[in-house]
Automatic annotation (TrEMBL):
It comes from Sandaracinus amylolyticus. This is Glycosyltransferase RgtA/B/C/D-like domain-containing protein. It comes from the Bacteria. The chain crosses the membrane at residues 9-33, 91-109, 121-142, 154-171, 219-237, 296-315, 327-346. Keywords: Membrane, Transmembrane, Transmembrane helix.
Length: 537
């Protein structure tokens, strides 16, 4: 059923337009923010594109320091087509998030349409639901941040939105084509973020309980053929290739002592930011789920399960609720439907024509009011981060790469390994453990095994610029051990005032001279930098 209420259609269109403009403005404002971990994914993608395989070091055993094989594959394909700049993951992220917002709007419209047919006493207007859903998602600054960060979050969010829409349409139409689409999108979402296996599995099981005999059989067979079997084949391959049951980041974030239930504060912070500080959204989500139980309950319960899961692992690099963010499309769609239902209730008793406009105004004002006090600080933080990556990590990586074949042992040990590894193309010992099986499996960040590999450069993090004050306690032993082997601080690169990268190397060596020279030159623009693979090694 089409929404024939002209004022409501106009209100929905205005909200959708405002959502798009707000999101694009925030994308432009946050554009220089690129996460260091993005360069970890780019390094894996570069190795895949060059035929080396999805591994960390060219000359080392396979190491799985990533948790999004689909995003690595997408970036590798992009590199195969010549998109080798750091711009590639940022542009692809913006496109994916834009598609996610559009899919959320469509999902809310579709659910509201169904709700309208089933609730005669209350007029639930799809245009209002669609516009509000898009606005709830697009006007949140976190959405723009995850659009440009370069991480897989935007792709995962887009696939959750697409899967949710396909599942709702499967429940409505019960056709084989819709069932196959939902199953295939479920697999894609699971390969974008591993915890989305939980989301897809629970949503699919709940959907099966709402389908009749033939529809249930079609959907079950589709899930088996297009998700379970291909997923099992991939899992078996990666276990054989890497020799571990799970990716290395899992061990660092969830399996080591002291990491259990390390994500409680971050998980609660996500709910507080979206559903408590935005109390209008929290109420609308509840109303939407209750009012459209058949369509939204499976998705809402699956989203709840993912949120509860994130109480367990540590949210390393969990900026702006990165880990639970992919469930936002479900919450936004529920909120949009809830707003439309509340507007219908207000309008029902005496035909209050102003109710859609009033509800739309509440959503818009609340969104801006909740974001405005924090926006300036958030922008400053993200811009400082982006500039810091340019003047510290990327500059170190470029300086090392320019040495080419002048170094007998191009090996570097560092904790922040993204841009340094990507731009240098050296062998990199990850002292934190996300790409180092020994550290990830044991949790021991001892200096001796690192120094035993005779790195030419050791990078440690200091909270002070005038002397070494270890930002991470375990690096004191690395500092002392490097000095005992004749290394010394040869350069300092400021990421942030309280986060200094100190480079240790043998004094007088070509590496020491290159880093000393790099520390005194201006950083170049990160996004426009020529990728290392395009230059002569």
């Amino acid at each position: 059923m089409r929404d024939t209420s002209t004022p409501t259609v106009v209100i929905g269109a205005v909200l959708a337009s405002a959502a798009t403009i707000t999101w694009l403005a925030l994308v432009a404002a946050y554009w220089t923010f690129t996460v260091d971990d993005t360069f970890i994914l780019l390094r894996y993608a570069d190795h895949v594109a060059r035929g080396i395989g999805p591994t960390w070091n060219v000359d080392g055993p396979p190491a799985e320091g990533y948790t999004s094989p689909l995003w690595v594959a997408v970036l590798a394909i992009a590199r195969g087509f010549g998109a080798t700049s750091v711009l590639a993951p940022k542009v692809l992220g913006v496109l994916a998030m834009g598609a996610a917002i559009a899919l959320v709007a469509r999902l809310a419209w579709r659910v509201a349409e169904r709700t309208e047919r089933g609730a005669v006493a209350i007029e639930v207007q799809p245009a209002l639901a669609s516009g509000c859903a898009a606005f709830v998602m697009a006007a949140w600054p976190a959405t723009a941040i995850h659009s440009v960060s370069g991480m897989e979050t935007a792709l995962a969010t887009c696939l959750v939105a697409a899967y949710a829409l396909a599942l709702v349409e499967t429940l409505e139409t019960r056709t084989a084509a819709r069932a196959a689409t939902a199953a295939a999108l479920g697999l894609a979402a699971s390969l974008a973020r591993p915890e989305l296996n939980l989301f897809v599995a629970l949503a699919s099981l709940l959907a099966l309980t709402r389908l009749d005999g033939p529809g249930r059989a079609r959907f079950a067979l589709s899930v088996l053929a297009l998700h379970v079997i291909p997923g099992a084949i991939y899992f078996a391959w990666r276990v054989r290739y890497y020799g571990l049951w799970l990716p290395l980041p899992f061990y660092v974030k969830a399996a080591l002592p002291g990491t259990t239930f390390a994500g409680v504060d971050e998980a609660l912070g996500f709910a507080r930011a979206l559903l408590v500080e935005r109390i209008d959204v929290g109420i609308a989500v509840a109303v939407g789920v209750v009012g459209a139980r058949r369509s939204l309950a499976p998705l809402a319960l699956a989203a709840l399960a993912v949120w509860l899961f994130f109480f367990v692992p540590a949210h390393e690099m969990g900026f702006d609720h990165r880990y639970p963010f992919p469930i936002v499309p479900v919450l936004a769609a529920c909120a949009g439907v809830g707003v439309a239902r509340i507007a219908g209730w207000l309008r029902a008793p005496s035909g209050r024509a102003w109710s859609p406009a009033a509800m739309a105004s509440i959503v818009a004002v609340s969104a801006f009011a909740s974001s405005a006090p924090h926006l300036a600080g958030s922008l400053a933080e993200k811009r400082d981060y982006g500039a810091g990556i340019e003047r510290a990590h990327a500059r170190i990586g470029r300086a090392l790469h320019e040495l080419g074949g002048a170094i007998d042992r191009p090996v570097i040990a560092a904790l922040d390994v993204g841009a340094i590894a990507y731009f240098s193309q050296w062998t990199v010992i990850d002292t934190w453990g996300l790409n180092e099986p020994r550290v990830a499996r044991t949790g021991r960040r001892d200096a001796e095994p690192v120094l035993a590999e005779s790195p030419s450069v050791v990078i440690v993090v200091s909270s002070r610029a005038d002397r070494f004050a270890p930002h991470f306690e375990h690096e004191q032993a690395l500092w002392d051990g490097a000095h005992a082997r004749g290394m010394a601080q040869v350069a300092r690169f400021e990421f942030l005032p309280d986060y200094q990268l100190l480079a240790l190397a043998t004094p007088g060596s070509p590496v020491a001279s290159a880093l000393e020279a790099a520390s005194s030159t201006r950083a170049s623009a990160l996004a426009s930098a020529e990728p290392p693979s395009a230059r002569a090694p």
